[in-house]
Amino acid sequence: MPSTQARFGQDTVRREMDAAVVAAGLPGGDTEAGFPKPRHSAGAAATEKEQKVAALAARLSPCVVTWSSDDATGASEATAARARRQFAAMLANLGADGWKETTPTEDVPTENGGVYVMATYKKRGWILNARHSSMHPWVESTAMATKESCFDSLTDEETGILEGVD
To answer: What is this structure's pTM?
Structure first.
């Protein structure tokens, strides 16, 4: 008997993340299929390690969705507090869309009066890790969803490559 459950893949995850971000009123973010664009190219002058990272990222891109807010430097305390509320709203929107929180979200104070927050959610074979940081005068929120089965099939060498990436 064929399954009546709709396919839950990268496009669906991207749409759900984007909808959660927009509904939360988060500014300037982009939801992308695949890894974020690198700060520098892994061209001909790249080291062997950079080339391996680039090749692995290209292979895994169909299994990844990312979002990040624009870096807000010079943010006031009110702006940082609003960004934290919007981050919480994004997580609530994901929860309302069926993403299950797997690690309790906790605000961890930083030395400079800021806050660091991590949240982990799961849905239908995907894991979403979200992070919010406010360390005056800088505020940033990010989320990355990964398809478990893609990452479960990595070799030890490939896992080592990913663990060594900054």
So the answer is: 0.85
